[in-house]
Design brief:
The chain is mainly α and about 650 residues long. Helices cover about 70% and strands about 0% of the residues. A two-stranded antiparallel sheet has the order 1-2. The termini are far apart.
């Protein structure tokens, strides 16, 4: 046994015998599955029973050869160890063919594959004798490491092939190896952990599980590694590289799992919040450490809703808001937690503003140190400069705004405005900082859209506290605003009008005129015939704008804010507003279908509805304008239409009485 030359010859003989037996078994199995076809040269003919008997007699002989062959796979002499892999490849090819058959893999084949996997794992370990493989810059270490990697490349290929048709066997082996390695002492040899990580890495190549959000067997294996604060031999260079390679390979899987976990955690907190009272401090302390990490990581696009990508990991911020808003915490505790959480987010926005200011200063004046003043004063003193901002900075700002929005969802308007207004003060401070971003970068469309969405949330949460910000917001939002931006502003003001009604009258007087002016600008551009608008996206945006505009006008009237339309500031545009209403109403498709030859059929439901709208409109105008409206209709409009003089008093009586 000590004579390597003899061992080489014996190994060669064992491999040759094993390959001949395997070839005999494989050919007999194929002949049983597909008999000789017409036109083929037939070989020695055996009956199906004879073929089956041949296979059954060859299998025990092959089984006797497998243990010494697998043992020689781990031999230190490369002439011996390298002779075995070709046989392994051939056996795996046979097993793969059997796996495609209707029946499951035979138990004896599964047993052999399990033995192969164990032998492969043992042979892929770095040697324990000799170098420690810590110093990568040592030429001898680098050379031996390369030899190990070259040899196990073929074995890894065999391992991956097995994992494709017998994944359960691979999962079992790697699971056992990882479970044993992670509980080993810190100073344990690195080889066990390194090879377990390497096999986990190989299992992910081409696996569909890597991109699936559901945690399958691979998720369980990853959990074994990632659930530990430290793994055995974590400080070793090769183990560190192995962990990094596994994380990179499974990064999308990990993102999806972490995103799903954050969403489910938020749902759990929402359902069990009353029972979580004793655990509030520990939960909030843990979240305080985890949330900055989530925010600093690149956005993970894990789902699309209505064409908008979202990162569900930000649901962790909503969970934090739900915990802080719990009645189990005293107001002082709530204020302290909310201030701490939002202060870090507010600081991120301030730092981004400072960075934008610094870049502008460098572009304009060259390198230098900013004055030792507060961030707000530095930003306020800086000329506008670049009003778009760099993508890396604005992307981070958007994620920060989303985080604040998620936290605010844990609170009700009554809670932060009436019951505990100090909480609203904290949130309002963050709002003011975020709006500084808008004032600094008014031309950045994605950022404008994100801030508009944030304002919708703040109106629901802070209510009338937002009002005094909106005139300036509208002014900056409408700078170089495109159709979609203007539509978004109309929808925001419409939300405000419908919810706060007459309480929004003063604000409406400030924002309505610039909004209408911007809308009319686009109406003039879109006044060309529809057949000349070749871009369907432009047509859609124009229709959306018109719909939002008329919904706002309808909301103003329905909310009792009609006097705002008649205010002096809007007088120059009032005639255009009314003329536009009449023109679009007269060309509305429903009206064109229902009104034929200049007549209105009052037996038709639409005709009656339209007549009712006419009556309601005249009543509304009379309520606002009084007798001057009646005098104008009776003395001017009715005579022009050819009505007798007696009709005027009757009309006035009906309008006044509401008949």
């Amino acid at each position: 046994e000590d004579d390597d030359a003899v061992m080489v010859r014996v190994t060669g003989l064992l491999v040759a015998l094993a390959q001949e037996l395997l070839s005999c078994i494989t050919k007999s199995e194929r002949d049983c599955a597909s008999p000789t076809k017409a036109g083929e040269m037939p070989g020695p003919q055996l009956s199906p029973l004879d073929r089956a008997a041949l296979v059954e007699s060859a299998k025990p002989m092959l089984d006797q050869l497998l243990p010494p062959l697998l043992e020689r796979l781990g031999h230190a002499n490369p002439q011996i160890s390298t002779a075995v892999p070709p046989f392994l490849t051939a056996y795996v090819a046979r097993a793969k063919r059997l796996a495609t058959a209707p029946s499951q893999l035979p138990p004896d084949v599964v047993q052999v594959l399990s033995q192969m996997l164990v032998a492969i794992a043992q042979r892929c370990r770095f040697p324990q004798e000799g170098h420690s493989f810590i110093a990568a810059d040592n030429p001898q270490v680098a050379e031996q490491e390369e030899e190990v990697r070259e040899f196990r490349a073929d074995l890894f290929t065999t391992f991956r092939n097995i994992s494709k048709f017998a994944p359960n066997e691979c999962h079992k082996l790697v699971g056992v190896m990882l479970s044993q390695a992670v509980v080993a002492p810190e100073d344990a040899p690195f080889q066990d952990m390194e090879v377990a990580l390497a096999l986990l890495y190989e299992m992910g190549e081409g696996s569909e599980e890597v991109t699936k959000p559901a945690a399958g067997a691979l998720g369980e294996l990853l959990g074994i590694v990632l659930s530990r604060e430290r793994v055995a031999a974590a400080s070793h260079r090769l183990v560190t590289l192995g962990v990094m390679e596994v994380v990179v390979r499974y990064v999308r899987f990990l993102q999806q799992v972490s995103s799903r976990a954050c969403y489910l955690f938020m749902r759990l907190v929402k359902s069990l919040r009353p029972q979580l009272g004793p655990h509030m401090p520990s939960l909030l302390s843990s979240l305080a450490q985890a949330l900055p990490v989530i925010l600093s990581m690149p956005a993970a696009v894990v789902r699309k809703a209505q064409g908008v990508t979202a990162d569900d990991r930000l649901y962790a911020f909503e969970a934090a808001g739900l915990l802080i808003s719990s009645d189990e915490l005293a107001e002082d505790e709530q204020h302290a937690y909310l201030s701490a959480y939002l202060a870090s987010l507010q600081q991120k926005c301030k730092q981004a503003l400072l960075l934008l200011t610094w870049r502008h200063r460098v572009d304009r004046f060259g390198l230098g140190v900013l004055p030792g003043r507060q961030i707000e004063s530095v930003v306020a003193a800086c000329p506008p400069g670049d009003q778009m901002g760099s993508s890396d900075t604005t992307d981070q700002i958007q994620r920060t705004i989303l985080a604040v929005s998620h936290i605010s969802k844990g609170f009700t308007s009554n809670q932060i405005n009436v019951q505990r207004p100090r909480l609203g003060d904290v949130l309002q401070g963050v709002l003011e900082t975020i709006l500084q971003v808008l004032y600094r970068l008014p031309l950045n469309r994605p950022l404008r859209a994100r801030i508009t969405s944030f304002l919708h949330r703040m109106l629901e949460c802070l209510g009338e506290r937002v009002f005094h910000h909106l005139p300036r917001v509208v002014h900056h939002m409408l700078q170089s605003a495109e159709i979609a931006d203007t539509t978004a502003m109309l929808q925001l003001i419409n939300q405000l009008v419908k919810h706060y009604k007459v309480a929004a009258h003063s604000l409406l007087l400030e924002v309505l005129e610039p909004l209408v002016a911007r809308v009319f600008t686009f109406f003039q551009i879109q006044s060309v015939p529809n057949h000349e608008l070749q871009n369907t996206e432009e047509v859609r945006e124009a229709n959306d704008l018109k719909l939002a505009y008329y919904l706002l006008l309808n909301g103003i009237v329905a909310s009792g804010l009609l006097p705002a339309l008649c205010a002096p500031v809007l007088q120059p545009r009032l005639e255009s507003i009314l003329a536009g209403l009449v023109q679009d109403a007269s060309h509305h498709p429903m009206l064109q279908v229902s009104v034929l030859a200049g007549t209105l059929d009052l037996r038709d439901a639409f005709g009656m509805m339209l007549l009712g709208e006419f009556v309601a409109l005249q009543r509304a105008v009379y309520t606002t304008c009084g007798d001057s409206f009646l005098e104008h209709v009776v003395q001017v409009e009715l005579p022009l239409l050819g009505y007798p003089a007696a009709v005027g008093p009757q009309y006035a009586q009906h309008v006044c009485s509401g008949d």
